[in-house]
């Protein structure tokens, strides 16, 4: 018996390939191949309409040329600020909303849940345009609303000032996407078994201390996932800035993030000709930043998170 | 794993069927790429029917994309081979690059090209002027459009020199009924295009200064080039509250709703303003420094039209291009789009009074084109794009005129040999 089994060849299990194929083909064709193409593009430069291989020179230019480096660090810094605001405002508010929603005494839960989530499904163009109108001091509703409560003197053309434009845009984006952490945390909170909560109550843990000591540790893995989603989303962001401030990310590049910087370089803008090679270089850097961030998270945070069997 | 070749061949088959079936269509259909989405109606209802009536067998489709995305979209379409047959040409380097890459066909031999002066053709010719690749279609003229009712109510007359301009602005500001000047800095380009490029030719004496800059005989830090920034810096006090966040369309609305008295303009606004504004409008050229100075206007070659060298219907496209050089087209276009002034030597009767006013300046003042467009925006940093930002900073007071000029000069000198 033993002897016989060794002789027959292992059967190729075709069904594995067949089932993997659709995802593999689509992913390779639309993700891996373009990504590799972008990286390849970043190693060339165009001279007399011919592509010339120059190794890592584009990356060197990006980091050492005074003008390129200034634009790049400005974009990276702005992008980091954009991300920080999301982490410090969007996610805590999302958790707070989820905690409120899961409170058993709350009425009209579905209504709140839906209305807070709706902005996430709106297009950036609509969100950007609506907020631009709201904050416009010519026709906007913000100045008159602030006038009613006597705060008119605090109103400023926030989107037009270097000091405030980026923060304002970040908060608009927070407004749009706060529904996502809320939903994820809400789902995590709902999945906590009642027995645990009841046991905690028997032990005298209620209200806030119950949330901090029982619920929060149980939803930590979800918060981790949300942080990483926020990180990836923010460093890939582009649409909101482009629709509200244009490709030059005004005023005076104060809202320029990596996405808009890449777009402007790759496709060119107005009289500036597009430079696909430098654009691809920036795109590659964006990819590496996200790669490093996600890997760091996976290695240092994800593995240390305690998981509880629920 | 035989799936992949199968899929590829299947899609190749499908693609080839699509390609051959369009190639055998009876009428030739040519498509026009353009950034003038505002003109869709005019092309569809006036220009295209006029052409199709004379040229049976050729159908024309006008497919515009958004102005700010046009260059990017067009470049990628041309690279991918999916662009239309007729290409609306941006002036100077954007089109020159397309020609050098072999995307735009040479058209200097078209019969009707003889109706254009070499200045008109300069926007779409090689630097030596030997080869042309787009038929010049129209130019736009800069100046101010004003609310006549507002001026009459305050007893203001059209300012002839700078002192009079600022006196008028002061009066408007003191009166308080109108925002003196409608312009914002949110979108940035207005500050350069309607600001600097509008007023500066009076200082650097039009073509004389522009060509001297290209030759390296003048610098952007010379008084003639810094002085316009000084005037821009004074504009700040006359723009509306919160002008920092005011967009281009905000400014247009502010003026056409009758809430602003003065609008630094390009003539392309005429059509829209005629439709929107319910008050009387007038226009005047940028006032000179002092009475008796020669006046200069920015009469900028703005739109040309060329053909895709790799298009499917070269003959039909050629027929169409040649037609755009005729008197019929010039008359149709100029009257359908008052504010876009024909560049050909055909006699054209303009019906719109505001457009007549603008074009009349060609007789009184010397014409020039925007100084940053020819040759000087070839490198990085791009002079035109930098000038947007510089003009905005000067208006806001974030940079002094001298600082802004120095930054522009340093940027230009960093790559442009004659300025080093």
Layout of SSEs?
The complex is a heterodimer of chains A (310) and B (420).
Chain A: H1 2-7, H2 14-41, E1 44-47, E2 50-53, H3 57-64, H4 66-101, H5 109-121, H6 124-135, H7 141-148, H8 162-177, H9 179-190, H10 194-202, H11 207-235, H12 239-245, H13 258-267, E3 268-269, E4 272-273, H14 276-301
Antiparallel strand pairs in A: 1-2, 3-4
Chain B: H1 3-23, E1 28-34, H2 40-54, E2 58-64, H3 70-80, E3 86-89, H4 93-100, H5 118-121, E4 135-147, H6 148-153, H7 162-175, E5 179-181, H8 189-199, H9 201-204, H10 206-215, H11 223-235, H12 248-256, E6 260-266, H13 270-276, E7 281-284, E8 296-307, H14 314-323, H15 327-336, E9 341-342, H16 353-364, E10 366-368, H17 383-396, H18 401-413
Parallel strand pairs in B: 1-2, 1-3, 5-6, 8-10
Antiparallel strand pairs in B: 3-8, 4-6, 4-7, 4-8, 4-9
Helix pairs in contact in B: 8-17, 11-17, 11-18, 17-18
Overall pLDDT metric of chain A:
89
Largest interface: A-B, 35 and 49 residues
Quantity of strands of chain A, as a count: 4
Q: What kind of assembly state do the chains in view correspond to? A: heterodimer
Spatial sequence of strands, sheet with the most strands of chain A: 1-2
Radius of gyration computed on alpha carbons of chain A: 25 Å
User: Radius of gyration of chain B, rounded?
Assistant: 23 Å
**Helicity of chain B, in percent?**
40-55%
Order of helices and strands of chain A: HHEEHHHHHHHHHHHEEH
What does this structure look like?
The complex is a heterodimer of chains A (310) and B (420). Chain A is mainly α and 310 residues long. Chain A has 14 helices and four strands. Chain A has a single domain (57-304), classed as Orthogonal Bundle (MetI-like fold). The model of chain A has no long low-confidence stretch (mean pLDDT 89). With 420 residues, chain B is α/β, with parallel strands linked by helices. Chain B folds into two domains: 22-139 and 300-360, Periplasmic binding protein-like II (D-Maltodextrin-Binding Protein, domain 2), CATH 3.40.190; 142-299 and 367-419, Periplasmic binding protein-like II (D-Maltodextrin-Binding Protein, domain 2, 3-Layer(aba) Sandwich), CATH 3.40.190.10. Chain B has helices at 3-23, 40-54, 70-80, 93-100, 118-121, 148-153, 162-175, 189-199, 201-204, 206-215, 223-235, 248-256, 270-276, 314-323, 327-336, 353-364, 383-396, 401-413; strands at 28-34, 58-64, 86-89, 135-147, 179-181, 260-266, 281-284, 296-307, 341-342, 366-368. In chain B, strand 1, helix 2 and strand 2 (58-64) form a beta-alpha-beta unit. In chain B, helix 8 crosses helix 17 (383-396), helix 11 (223-235) crosses helix 17 (383-396) and helix 11 (223-235) packs across helix 18 (401-413). The longest helix of chain B is centred in the N-terminal third of the chain and has 21 residues, at 3-23. The interface between A and B is large, with 35 and 49 residues.
